[in-house]
Write a structure and sequence with these properties.
64 residues; mainly alpha; 2 helices; 64% helix; rod-shaped
């Protein structure tokens, strides 16, 4: 009984470690994506951007 519990505990610890590793990798990817925003997305904190006119087809596609 004790051996079975210990085995299950080791299995659980291994799963937790793997999940934590995957989570860290995901967070790194997300932070990298956040650090390099795509150029055609206006940043909300910059307000009105003069270099992106209303008639820009890319911008219109994005807003639809």
């Amino acid at each position: 009984m004790l051996q079975q519990q210990q085995a299950m505990h080791h299995q659980y610890q291994a799963q937790q470690a793997q999940a934590e590793k995957q989570h860290k990798e995901m967070m790194q990817v997300l932070q990298q994506q956040r650090a390099e925003p795509p150029p055609n997305q206006p940043q909300p904190n910059q307000g009105v951007q003069p270099q992106v006119p209303r008639g820009n087809p890319v911008f219109r596609e994005f807003c639809r």
